[in-house]
């Protein structure tokens, strides 16, 4: 009961006092209140689905995926779905994507991996596609991938625009 009364009293007093518990008011040199500047949006740090798969290839749990762990992880991920067969089809690739990338529709798509267009994914095709990812994520080119290298930093989308689109680009497209 006493706690409820104190909370009610605190709420009433803060309502009558401007800016208590809110964003501070800034003033100019004449003492006039100014609107606070809108803070810049914080960049987003994301892990792409393929980065999550690569992180899972870290066999010894040290937070670093060596080239040996990477190659073994790609082969292990293939073997789990192929079940002893030399290749698997696009539907099974969806199962592979669901298990290793977190979603059946995550990239890379089977069309990107299937280099010879036979509607089958072989281990060499999967390894070739993942070699490109290893090269891309190994930012310092030390033949290993640290967790920090698996993060992608993106600027948040601006209201009213498409991601990565400048306002000037919109105007030039309308002309």
Topology overview:
Layout: H1 2-16, E1 26-27, E2 33-34, E3 44-47, H2 49-56, E4 64-66, H3 67-82, E5 87-89, H4 90-100, H5 110-113, E6 120-122, H6 123-137, E7 144-146, E8 151-154, H7 167-174
Antiparallel strand pairs: 1-2, 3-8, 4-7, 5-6
Helix pairs in contact: 3-4, 3-6
Could you please describe the fold and organization of this structure?
- The protein is an alpha+beta fold.
- 44% of the residues lie in helices and 14% in strands.
- Helix 3 runs antiparallel to helix 6 (123-137).
- The N and C termini lie far apart (67 Å).
Q: What helical percentage do the residues reach? A: 40-55%
Low-confidence stretches: 3-7, 13-17, 169-175
Task: Quote the distance from N terminus to C terminus.
Answer: 67 Å
Q: Quick check: average pLDDT?
A: 82
Major sheet attributes:
2 strands, antiparallel
Strand content: 5-15%
Structural class: alpha+beta
Oligomeric status of the shown chains? single chain
Task: Identify the overall geometry.
Answer: elongated
Instruction: Sketch the topology as an H/E string, one letter per element.
Output: HEEEHEHEHHEHEEH
* Rg calculated over all Cα atoms: 26 Å
**What spatial order of strands do you see in the largest sheet?**
1-2
Number of strands: 8
Number of helices: 7
């Amino acid at each position: 009961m006493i706690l409820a009364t104190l909370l009610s009293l605190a709420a009433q007093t803060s309502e009558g006092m401007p800016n208590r518990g809110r964003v501070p008011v800034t003033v100019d040199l004449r003492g006039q209140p100014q609107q606070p500047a809108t803070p810049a949006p914080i960049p987003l740090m994301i892990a792409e689905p393929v980065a999550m798969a690569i992180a899972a290839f870290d066999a010894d749990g040290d937070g670093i995926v060596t080239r040996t762990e990477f190659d073994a992880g790609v082969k292990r991920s293939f073997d789990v779905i192929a079940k002893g067969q030399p290749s698997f089809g696009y539907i099974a690739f969806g199962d592979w994507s669901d298990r290793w990338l977190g979603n059946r529709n995550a990239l890379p798509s089977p069309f990107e991996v299937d280099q010879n267009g036979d509607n089958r994914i072989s281990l060499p095709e999967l390894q070739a596609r993942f070699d490109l990812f290893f090269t891309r994520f190994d930012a310092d080119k030390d033949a290993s991938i640290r967790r920090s290298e698996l993060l992608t930093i993106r600027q948040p989308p601006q209201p009213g625009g498409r991601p990565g689109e400048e306002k000037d680009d919109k105007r030039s497209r309308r002309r």
